[in-house]
Amino acid sequence: MTAKIIGVAGFKNAGKTTLVERLVRELTRRGYRIATVKHAHHSFDIDHEGRDSFRHRAAGASEVAVVSRQRWAIIHESRDEEEPSFAAILAKLSPCDLIIVEGYKHGDHAKIEVRNLALDHPQLAGEDRSVVAIAATGPVPDAPVPVFDRDHVEALAQFIITRMELDPK
After folding, report:
1. Backbone phi, psi, residue 25, to 5°
2. What local confidence, expressed as pLDDT, does residue 15 receive?
């Protein structure tokens, strides 16, 4: 089965992370199994100095699995490797109803553009044909795609369910 993917894209401080969080909450409330992918343009760490897993990586382990009854994670050290492709990351995810992607703004997957109209950022919709909707802080005149209030997550979730042809729950 091909994964169903919807992106959330926009410029800094547009409200992307908050919208992803709210969409995940709403869609899981409706019974969907959701996975997310967050692309970072900077380094990040999910464990901290002094932790056993940190010490394993610092000693040179290329991968460290941390496992408990509640959750598990595999930390992969890229070292001199290239950043993995978007497709390679998607292939590592468990089956789900929908993958919501934050970042990968220039990918060709369907995307919802998030706009904070108080900020003077260019519009992606129209220029980027993969933008299928806009979630904005106000009206967007002459928008080439449907526009939703950024805070009306229920309507946006329903749009996603319909657009992505998710099975009814």
Report:
1. -60, -45
2. 95
Closest to 127 (Cα-Cα) out of 18, 1, 9, 19: 9
Show the CA angle centred on residue 135, arms to residues 131 and 136, nearest 5°.
125
Tell me how far apart the alpha carbons of residues 34 and 28 are, in angstroms, rounded to a whole number: 7
Q: Beta strand pairing status for 147-149 and 5-9?
A: unpaired
| Nearest to 15, CA basis, from 100, 118, 99 | 118
pTM: 0.88
Decide the pairing of beta strands 98-102 and 131-136.
Answer: unpaired
Write out pLDDT tens, residues 42-85.
Answer: 666 677 788 888 889 888 888 888 888 998 888 888 888 898 89
* Distance between first and last Cα of the chain: 18
Of 85, 91, 93, which Cα lies nearest the Cα of 36?
93
